[in-house]
Amino acid sequence: MTIQANINQAVLLLRSGDVIGFPTETVYGLGADASNPIAVRRIFALKGRPVNHPLIVHVQNREEAESWAVFNQMAIEIADRYWPGPLTLILPKRKHVLDEVTGGLDTVGLRCPSHPKAQSLLKAFGSGIAAPSANRFGRISPTSAKHVSSEFGPDLFVLNGGPSKIGIESTIIDLCDDKPAVLRPGYVTNSEIERQWGPLGHSDRSAPGTLKAHYAPKTSLLLSQNPKEDCQTLEARGLKVAMMEARPVADYARDLYGELRRMDQSDVDILVVEMAENEGVGIAVNDRLKRAATGSPHELEEIDVSKDNA
């Protein structure tokens, strides 16, 4: 099937109220027509996602985004600077935006992805696509079409766009007040926003991917600053261990979820993962790792490797 035929099939399914998997530069999304309440509810049912947890509406450009939300001058400037790209803006919603999309909030999250197939899909569909990451709720996000199919099986249509280039979810910024407030760190860093638009504000607004436990493997996960030593300690106790060491932060972000999935499929008792350097994109990587560790099974939670390494 040609690329255009795949796009056409995806559009037909969306217009029929179905849910599809599609690529973005961050992670793969589980998308539905954002103006169809039944279709949006299917996303929640398929993921097992709480219905009060808001979704992001993916749009082709800022002009389309302004039909979904009220943009202030700062929002216009930030959108024009970073879109298409890995940045989600939280803004006051227009009246027509469904409560199913916003979780009942008076705000909506909007993003314009840069992935060429996502752009082609949005152009052909002609409207917003509501989409969280294409995985079961709380589990590891997908960065390939294969990951999506492994989560939901062969019956879900997935538009294959190859491996995600960035690999972690978009930065989310709340722009409803005078100062931008970062709700979820990502590839667009806090320091970059501050350099352009001044000190960051604070917001407690609900946003996707900000629950304490998220992105979790099925195997218990131990975060480490000394992964080799901690692996040796755990193996000495008779445990089977898989290890992931840190790497340059952009590479770490791109590889993170794929490596977690690979290790999670191995027959081990615990995953030992080294934290990233905590600056720039590394802040976002560590955010995902901390949430993943919080969401891990807790059979091994009493293990304290520090006693052995003292």
Topology (elements, then pairings):
Blueprint: H1 3-15, E1 20-22, E2 29-33, H2 37-47, E3 56-58, H3 62-65, H4 73-82, E4 87-92, H5 99-102, E5 107-111, H6 116-125, E6 129-130, H7 145-152, E7 171-174, E8 181-184, H8 190-197, E9 220-224, H9 227-236, E10 241-244, H10 249-264, E11 270-274, H11 281-294, H12 306-309
Parallel strand pairs: 3-5, 4-7, 9-11, 10-11
Antiparallel strand pairs: 1-2, 2-6, 3-6, 4-5, 7-8
Helix pairs in contact: 1-6, 10-11
What does this structure look like?
With 310 residues, this protein is of the alpha/beta class. The chain has two domains: 3-197, DHBP synthase (Alpha-Beta Complex); 220-309, 3-Layer(aba) Sandwich (Rossmann fold). Helices cover 36% and strands 15% of the residues. It has helices spanning 3-15, 37-47, 62-65, 73-82, 99-102, 116-125, 145-152, 190-197, 227-236, 249-264, 281-294, 306-309; strands at 20-22, 29-33, 56-58, 87-92, 107-111, 129-130, 171-174, 181-184, 220-224, 241-244, 270-274. An eight-stranded mixed sheet has the order 1-2-6-3-5-4-7-8, sandwiched between helices. β10 (241-244), α10 (249-264) and β11 form a beta-alpha-beta unit. α10 (249-264) runs parallel beside α11 (281-294). The longest helix is centred in the C-terminal third of the chain and has 16 residues, at 249-264. The radius of gyration is 20 Å and the shape is globular. The N and C termini lie far apart (59 Å). The model has no long low-confidence stretch (mean pLDDT 93).
